[in-house]
Amino acid sequence: MCFFQASTDLFAEEIVVAVQKNSVPTTPIKRYVMSTIFAMGMTTWPDGSSIRVFVLADNNPTHSNFCKQVLNVFPHQLRAAWDRLVFSGTGQSPIVVSSENEMRERLAATPGAIGYLPKETVNDSVAILPVE
Amino acid sequence: MKVDFSIRNLPQIKTLLPLLGMCFALLSFQVTAFELFNSVQIHGFATQGLFSTTRNNIFGDSSDGISPDFTELGINGSWVPLPKLRLSMQIISRRAGDANDGTPMIDFGLLDYSFFDKEDYRIGVRLGRVRLPYGLYNDTRDVAFTRPSILLPQSIYFERTRDLTLSGDGGMIYGQYRHPWGTLTLEMITGFPRTDNSETRSAVLSTSDANGNLQADLSFIGRLNYELDNGRIRFAITGARVQTHYTPLNSFDPLPRGTDVFSPVIFSAQYKGEKLSLTSEYSLRPINKSGFGPFLDYNVVGESYYFQAAYRIFEKWEIMARYDALYNDRDDPQGLELQQKTGIPAYTQYAKDWTTGIRYDVTPWLMIRGEYHYINGTAWLPTQDNPVPPLPSKYWEMFALLVSFRF
Prior knowledge:
heterodimer, A: alpha/beta, D-Maltodextrin-Binding Protein, domain 2, 4 helices, 5 strands, globular, B: mainly beta, Porin, 19-stranded antiparallel sheet
């Protein structure tokens, strides 16, 4: 499968999946499920509440690292998947935030929120969701 | 506006349903706008194209000149009032030569409810006007950003019968199964395709002289799609049975009552890597016309395929090349038998299109594209831009420039 492996930068900072505390369970999630969530294919948590996905802009380096490290896709593949949903009436796209600070604030404030952050910028306001 | 809700006017009611849904959505939006902030999205796009061709026309008066008669505008809104319920609507205005005049149309207007939305699977329905799942590109064919080129491979995504394969009024069941080895999605629709376009009429009826009504009958379309890593690898099979019938206006109408059944199958394959993407689709297209009389009735199987490669040379630049072939009758691919029998030029029965193009993404929201086509044959040439006489030319070229914005 190494043929399909996205090339990751060895010196890239480690990115973790972050969620709102309390509203989202932090039991480990499988990689393909995480991938489905960020592709906007799964829209509700197991308790039936809405999943709210937050991302940084397509050309943001943290977004790019997250796509490659955690989801094993390239940003343009994810964008193509969102475009297909939005412009065919079959889904919605994630909410784009402008900075890592805004990401952390929105994740902390929004029930059902999921996003990502460089590991060293995570603080008590959000919870980390481990990926299997 | 007076609306007749009798069975005879079913199409009218069908077009009103999505509108009513959206009015309801907008009303509720005003009532609790603040709370809905996170669940409402508005997106849109604007595209302008310039076309220049040698000999034959496409999208207006393009031969030996430049035609700006190509504009695509669209806006859509979606709202998730309940976690498993979504309402979406898109309005599109398209100006393309003499075939589309820019009148805004409801492209889709639907209610989507998912009965199950689990880690491993999702099952739901869409009701209203839905986009038809047809091959790889039909779902979003009006959005330049999602196309591989300015002009989609015409062998499979005809301009001529565009409206017939675009969206339909009816119901869809969808199911998705997710696994570490990939995602399988099945979508099945039954409903009435749209026949309100004049180019579609003349393509289906093989004449633009008919004055009567072309109406859609209950049709079916289904697609099974396999995807790995959000589209790195994609395979799909599409099958459809699209039926229309023609009712003459009066006894002077040149066409009698007749039925047209179009039942294509499409096989699609795609690899999309970081830089290289390879795409191919193959289609068999049986067309059966009956009731129109011995000169217009026919039963043929058309054949279409293309091979396409694209390469991202720099982060913002992509180049592409494609060979696209269309044969109206796979038993007479060069059109020679037809020419012998009827005198219709053989080259109107096929089209072989070599395309090369370049794309520059100025920002994620703004894109510029240039493209060149060398075409042998006129099988997919829009008739409204090329009234006969004179006969179209066998060999022709096309240059196109396009700028597109989206949000």
